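Bug #77: duplicate submission created two jobs. Keeping one. Sequence:
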Amino acid sequence: MLRVVLAIFLSAMLSPVALAASPKGSAADLLETRDQVLVSAMRQSIGAPARADIGDQATARLSEDLLFVPQEPAIRLLTVSGTPVPPDFEALLVGSQGMDAPGFIRFVSAGFIDSDAALAWTADDILASLRDTVEDGNPDRAKNNQQQREARRWVRPPHYDPENHQLSWAALILPKSAPRESDGEITYHAIAFGREGYIELAIVTSVEQAEEVGRMADRFLVGLSFRPGKAYGDALPTDPRAPGGLVAAMGLDQLHKAEVRGNFLAGDMVVPVAGGIVAAIGALSLFVYIQRHLRRESRRG
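Kept job's structure:
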């Protein structure tokens, strides 16, 4: 059933592009070319329950409605549709949203990354770092007549699984001019770290579909297994390390602690501080009262 749905999505997506790409050919030739792409992709795709290879690094055990389009047919689909092919591209992952929200699977051969470093950072820390990274890119956007952007909030806060060395997150990044209550397009990221780099699943979707896309990414991570000798735990001290480490894998300029902004009259410190002030005033009043009483007594004497 999912293959039929995917074929419909792809047919709608590819038909106008194919017709525009080759104006000199006959309609029959163009239709045949489009159909060849679709049929090839359907024939070579892998559906659940099955396992699919991700290069020489890992295998993905597919479950429920997941469909895996291998590298070669996936690149053809992206090329015909006019979609850029990401660096280190390995495959497409399709779930219940069909081609409305395909997942781009990459293996980034960056070297070993100490992913446990994620344990030292909170969601607030990472959001503050993301905001700074987005802000640092705004001058270039302005020069290119593009809207300046800002990271508003987490759609799905960063979650790190230290047992399987997997990290996932999704943030809402919008133009600064967008109203505060605005929703928009997001990119859901799911990363599995290995010995020689990391496998990333990136899914562009909407805030409304984020929950379903999150489940799709979770199923992918659950079924992902690095091959013997390629896993995180197989790393040796002499293995090459990724220059940018976790920061580069997350697409950040740097990671830093979030600034603690608070008002002296707000928060949990108000009660003890106010109580201390009241106690000090009371003690001072008592001291003054005693001093006056002693002076009166001395005069009477």
